[in-house]
Amino acid sequence: MDxxxxxxxxxxxxxxxxxxxxxxxxxxxxxxxxILVGAEDGARAYLNSCPHQGVRLDWQPGxxxxxxxxxxQCSMHGALFALADGHCVSGPCVGRALHAVPLQELDxxxxxxxxxxxxxxxx
Length: 123
Ligand code: FES
Description:
By secondary structure, the chain is mainly beta.
């Protein structure tokens, strides 16, 4: 399987459980901005695009967590998303979810399969 690595290059083990980071990946359809979330069983990735209005979630570049550090929080209207699955648990998009991005690994670095197609993300 051909893999496109994330930018900046991100090691599989770089994220502690509950930690978050912004990343970008070049797809066939252009760049896509991602939210990386560390977990005990491996990193997860979501498209950095709120299902409410399609904006980036970051409060500041790369800052995604609420004050308790337990959920991703959208900076626009405060929707809260579960770290484990990206589902919105509070706010204007309850019942919807962040778009999960399947991660692959190459030599310990994270990326996505070349054939992965993703909807546009906010810039
Ligand atoms: S745009 Fe994210 S909660 Fe409204």
